[in-house]
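Troubleshooting: if your tokenizer reports a length mismatch, compare your output against this known-good record of 854 residues.
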Amino acid sequence: MITSEEMKRRLWDGANELRGSMDASRYKDYMLGLMFYKFLSDKTLETFKLTSGLGEINDSGLVEEYTKAKAEYGEQLEKMIKNVLGYYVLPEYLYQTWLKDINSGDFEVQKITDSLNNFERTIAVSGDSDDFKGLFSSSTLDLTDTALGSNLNERSKNVKALILLFADLNMVALQKGDVLGDAYEYLIGQFAMESGKKAGEFYTPRQVSEVMAQIVARTSEVKSIYDPTVGSGSLLLTVGKHLDEDAQKNLSYYGQEKNTATYNLTRMNLLLHDVRPEKMTIRNGDSLSQDWPEDPERPNEGVQFDAVVMNPPYSVKNWNKSGLKVSDPRFEVAGVLPPDSKGDFAFLLHGLFHLGQNGTMAIVLPHGVLFRGSAEGAIRERLLKKNYIDTIIGLPDHLFTNTGIPVVVMILKKNRKIDEPVLIIDASRGFIKIGKQNVLQEKDIAKIVDTHVERREEEGYSHLATREEIIENQYNMNIPRYIEALSEEIPQDVDAHLLGGIPQKNIDDLKVLQSTAPDVLKQSLKKIRDGYVELVKPVEEISDDILSDARIAQKTKEIESNTKAYMDKYWDILRNADNSSSLTQLMNDMLVEIKEILSAFKYIDVYDGYQVVAEIWKNALTHDTEIIALSDFYTAGRTREPNMVTKGSGNKKREEQDGWVGRIVPNELIAKRLYSHDIEEIESKKTRIQEIENELSDLVSAANVEDSDEENALGETLNKSGEAFESKKVKAELKKPGKGTVEHNLLKKVEKLLADKSALSRAVRADEKALNESVQERILTLTNEEIDRLMHEKWFGSMLDAMFDLVWKPLKAELNTLQLLHNRYADTLSAIDEEIQDSESSLEALMRDLVVRS
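Known-good structure output:
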């Protein structure tokens, strides 16, 4: 079966291939809508097969049996399937029937419209009609849109190609492993990035969702969750993912979305993630203009939830078109309405109104909510006085596709003690850049969440702001007022510049070196006057002394021992992954445990170690454990698959097989470890080719020197640009000079070099082809021991070195600082003055000499 990563890649490549020039934000509705209809059709057929007691049967046979049963049992069959699913798709309107029509040449676009309309009619009388109603409305899937093609034939061709993209995917089987839901969510994200600003209304970047979801899931008992600006539903689903299995089964999802097409997308997304219709209540509406959901028995309280999450549109203008007053129960707590020019606090207050007394709320907002005055200042002050604001997290800019501004995640709770401080986290500098976007790494997310959960203070990163501090700052919560960014710049020392030497206070600031090997550092320095020292040996020698010190060696040995035990433990677990295993939970266990191991060591960044394991999962384990779970470790290790490559361009662009690749064992690793002698021979030939090329290059250069022997003998054999020899010209010139002459010898030398290079190049190509073929065949016969060795190297081959680097990294950073300090103060002002005076004296002497000579 296809893995999650393979499905994502295939569908996204297909989307790019098929959509042509159509805007990504529009094309997503067609692609995701038809993908969902395939899911509904597959679920209908699967339910029919199970309830009818049919055994193994192919798709065409199953459709035929369903068609016969429908003709025989009619409404009785429809009712049976509807009782199980809450919906059904009639045989003549199945996705599989579209495929049959395409294959027979009878396909018409109108058939899709008829199918979608019929589905709407079949669920109209269902108790679950609100969950499915309008999913395929013409505003979402307009098959007459000329963007799909300028005429009916073009539209038909493009729609057929899109239908065929999902033809061989078993959506029911894919849903069970959450592959389908992951792929759907991935496509939503990819379309959002392609759409840029247009996507801001419905998509929250994964890393921001993770921060919010992990905090909510770890600080509340979540049985119900609500997102008033639900978008694609990703925030709801991410929170659910971080709950245990029992909690997930009983979780009730609520959401409201203003945009109709996005509202439809939300419902599809939740259903594809196996959220039962009775567990989801999604509404198409404007959360601010009219409160929802309401509790009929308590109209002034509203429905309360264990968790509220949202990423509302930022600073919405004219949000109060309904003329709401401060008497609206949602705004009473603030005592004032948010300004009509900015809706940020309106969304916050709406969410807070629906937050249960013991719940947790997480909301993404622009930085302005922390410091803007007037009505917003009054609201912020009221919230702080009631101590509803639990945590403020400053994030980097350019995290979102629809805005470059930095944002904050605000965590709110109603059950905080009145004197409990507000945690402020400045996570604005923890990111990597990918293209134009800034991205939080897994270690950045983990550090934010841990800091929140542990209420931890760290200089330059987090601070617990007391009520007194907040009052002193007049309820202004701008992060720089509470957290001063740590400067990496070391202040300049005037005395050191004048008289030389490194200030002792700078040496004292080298905390890691002072703690780890103080005696080694001390022996490397000499006091030259009070408060100043100089190095007695180069920093390179000091580095060697410290990194080879017994204490560092002991620490490295302990890290090695603990890391090996960690790898041994998870090596067995990973090899035995099966479908009953929660791979997500396994990944989380590994990430948590590596933090616990590294926490025992001083001056090691546990989050750098966390990232090492996160990268192993990203680069290998996510893919490999899915494959292993579908079969078993050794079967997967001896399985190969076609290596598909894209050839040609434009209309001639096509996918072709280029050999085979290991399903989980990389061909390169097989070659490296099992065919090392062959690789050495190939590399030896390549080295000789490079030597020949260098010799020829030298001769070309000599042949371009006028009146040289080489120019006389070889000048006529160069190509037009004079940069290389032409073999035909060399052969022709060889007929002219007599044997034994300088010219003849040079020509023969070039001829032989060219012939040797050509022969070696052919040999390398032949050897590489033979090696590739041998590797591809070897995949099928790998022994269990070979698979063990190769896969252990693939998963954990670089882990020990990465862990050693964690020990050395802070030491090397301080040694670099020591070098910087040495370089900075090596040249004193008096030495520079002497140098200037010497230069001036030399210049004066030269001038006098010139005057005398003239």
